[in-house]
Amino acid sequence: MNNKVYIAKTQDPYQGACEVLDGLGFRVTGRKVFIKPNLTGCRPSDEGMGVDTGLVRAVLERLVDCPVITIGESCSKTERSFVELGYEELKKDYPQLQLVDMRESEHLWKPIPRPFHTKEMPFAAEFFEHDYLINIAKLKTHSLAGVTLCLKNIFGFVPTRKQKLMYHPFIRKAVLDMNQIIRSDFCLVDGVWGNEFDEIQSTPINAGVVLGGENILAVDAVAAAVMGIDTSKMKTYQMAGELFGEPEIEVLGHSIHEVCGKFRQGCLLSTRFRYIKESTQSLLYRAVCRH
After folding, report:
1. I need a labelling partner for 77 at 20 to 30 A (CA). Which of 13, 42, 84, 247 fits?
2. pTM of the model
3. CATH code for the structural domain at 4-288
């Protein structure tokens, strides 16, 4: 796999994505493509929470003769997000495009080849009708996972809220199980506006970057470095390196030094209480549900 990661320094999500994609020679022909943007509760891009449609449009422009193109998400307000954040508008230019709220999907239980948290997990069935995944994350910190980038963005393929609660308190290991089933072919990170400190509250920070590449661990490592965070010191990414292999990263475009900052890490007291509640719910669900 190509371990190159391209960094574009920009205040324009669309132009930044075009620079990254063209800098890496990105083009997909004749594939059934699934695009998974990170959309958080219908919050706009400049609040640091959701992916700007400019990145998705840049990707769509470089898909050639692809018979099926799907954008899918499973956030708390998915359908509203598609409308209010401009994803419905994309369908006017790309009639083959379909938008899927994965909360409403049929789900398939898949055995995990090398379990870190659980032996099997449910995933949205629509995904398995595609053969190419473009993973578009947002540049954010996270109190449980440390960072919420491309590796964690795969969490959205678990369809229902109840199913998510079975795994979210154990996200550091659960994402390793998820990424063994849902494998990303190309990754982008929208960091024009990122989010620091608390993943529930919008605390936007203007990082002014878009970055991407084929290797999910390479992309996440560079994105985390832009936030001043070292993934090599995080247990999740240490285990991911053992599982998928440590990439030897080559940075193109701008250097990390030119764009890096320092994102605050932490969370609100209300978020801590929320996760305590989720942990209790998780134990109850796992006691009575298939897992």
Report:
1. 13
2. 0.94
3. 3.40.50
